[in-house]
Each structure stands twice: as structure tokens, then as C-alpha cells.
Amino acid sequence: MEISFVLTTLDRIYPELPLHRLATTPFRTLIATMLSQRARDEQIIPVAKRLFTAAETPKAFLSLSDRKLQIIIRPAGKYRQNAKRIKEICRILLEKYGGEVPDSEEALLSLPGVGRKTANIVLSHSFGRDAIAVDIHVHRITNRLGWVRTKTPEETERALQKIIPKRYWRMVNRVFVRHGQTICTPQSPFCLRCPVFRSCRRVGVRKQR
């Protein structure tokens, strides 16, 4: 009951992630999620807009020069590494999947630079699959709430799958990412402004606002 209350409450407050408005295809979702791993939405959204204006498909991405791709994605960080991985992924998608993003976890995880979080976001957002995408926000907040006691995102994903009803899996990443960026921050969270304050055990919180 507590889990349902928390998730439905946050779902009303955070109906969507701004980045998801640009993630209108599985390919866009894959690339945008990869680039967002070390950056906030306000950094990634302008980058994604410029990137998808310059190229929309794996074939179009491969036609971009390495330098142009690096310049476009530079604000997202690790631009040389990300540019290389993006082109590697595009080659694989063209060679193995006819230019389409595969809809299986195994195939997604075989792509360079794609981890469980990215794979699960693609599966849930683009293919409507029930999946829990665990990033640093989901990991931190669910431990803080007292739902899990885990040390890694992988452990958190497995633990959450056991306690969260499947109908809520797809929203977990969205609501906790937004909540973690605005209220349930890593240091000194804004507990007095939190809409689910009474449902939180505040595990590990030493200072709050």
C-alpha cells in the first residue's frame, strides 16, 4: 500500500521526463539515454535537439564526420568516447538488425556502452515492456525510503522487482529521477517539501531542509 501511494503520488507530480519528449523512436531513446548518463536534462536536451536535427537514423549518423559528431555532443561530456560508441552502435544496428533497435534485453546489452539502465529505459519507454530502470536516483531514493537495503543498482533492480507490482515498473525511473533532481537530492534533501514525507524512513539522511 505504501509503495503504491508513493508511486501514484509522484506520478501525478512528474507526468513525464522532459527528455522523453524528444525520445520519439527507439533509436532516439537509445542515443539520448546513453548521452544522459553523466549529465542533467538541461544539458542533454539542447544536445539531443541539435543531434537529431543533424541525423535521425543509424545510416545518417555514420555519414557525419567524427569531428562534427564530437562537436555536437561535447556539452554532454565524454564526447570522444561517446562519439566512438555511437558510431559503433550504428554500424551494429545496420549490420545485424537492419538499422532498427532490437527489442530484447540480451541484444541491447550486447551493444557498446549499453548497460542495464539504458536497456531497460529503451524496453520500457520505446517498446512498452515492464522493466525497472535503476540509476543513481532510483538507487538512492528507494534505499532512503527504506524499501531496499542494497549497495549497487543491479541489487536494487532485483530487490525492487520483488516488491513493486509490475503495473508500476515503467514509471519508477521517471518519477524518482525527477524527484531526485528537485526534492530528494543526494545531500540535504528538501524533506519538508516532499509530498511523500510521511511514507519515508529517511534512511541515511543526516541533514534535511
TrEMBL record:
GO molecular function annotation: 4 iron, 4 sulfur cluster binding; class I DNA-(apurinic or apyrimidinic site) endonuclease activity; DNA binding; metal ion binding; oxidized pyrimidine nucleobase lesion DNA N-glycosylase activity
Gene3D superfamilies in alphabetical order: Helix-hairpin-Helix base-excision DNA repair enzymes (C-terminal), Hypothetical protein, domain 2
CDD domains associated with the record: ENDO3c
EC annotation from Swiss-Prot or TrEMBL: 4.2.99.18
Domain of life: Bacteria
Cofactor comment: Binds 1 [4Fe-4S] cluster.
Reactions catalysed, as given in the entry: 2'-deoxyribonucleotide-(2'-deoxyribose 5'-phosphate)-2'-deoxyribonucleotide-DNA = a 3'-end 2'-deoxyribonucleotide-(2,3-dehydro-2,3-deoxyribose 5'-phosphate)-DNA + a 5'-end 5'-phospho-2'-deoxyribonucleoside-DNA + H(+)
Protein name: Endonuclease III
Source organism of this protein record: Candidatus Chisholmbacteria bacterium RIFCSPHIGHO2_01_FULL_52_32
